[in-house]
Design brief:
With 108 residues, the protein is of the alpha+beta class. It has helices at 58-70, 76-86, 93-104; strands at 2-3, 28-33, 37-43, 47-50. It has a four-stranded antiparallel beta sheet with strand order 1-2-3-4, with no helix packed on it. Strand 2 (28-33) and strand 3 (37-43) form a beta hairpin.
Length: 108
């Protein structure tokens, strides 16, 4: 994901199921990716939307993948691929904290 803030790159865990398809007038895209388009947006100084789940840890995601696989919402081979790939990176909690704090203080 690419941001228009000073921090150029944030990693976050997300899914293709929910996406922002269209923003309301005057909303501003503050981060984007080729995968989903709008990754983050703000509407004035009061609303910020984030695609994905920066709060998820690897343990939470592994549990979610297992549940989806056990209920046959995803095939086992896809679940295995997801688990193998999630070990490569972890969201930078300090960067997310700084970003959200900056937004709340009106500095974003």
């Amino acid at each position: 994901m690419f941001c228009t803030t000073q921090q150029d790159f944030f990693f976050q865990l997300d899914s293709d199921y929910f996406r922002v398809r269209e923003l309301p007038p005057k909303a501003e895209v503050i981060a984007w990716s080729e995968k989903t388009g709008v990754e983050m947006f703000r509407y004035g100084n009061h609303i910020m939307g984030i695609q994905g789940h920066p709060e998820y840890t690897k343990d939470i995601l592994a549990h979610l993948i297992d549940r989806l696989s056990q209920r046959d919402f995803i095939v086992d081979s896809y679940a295995d691929d997801l688990k193998a790939n999630m070990g490569k990176m972890e969201p930078d909690k300090d960067a997310w904290k700084k970003l959200c704090t900056s937004f709340l203080k009106g500095r974003l």
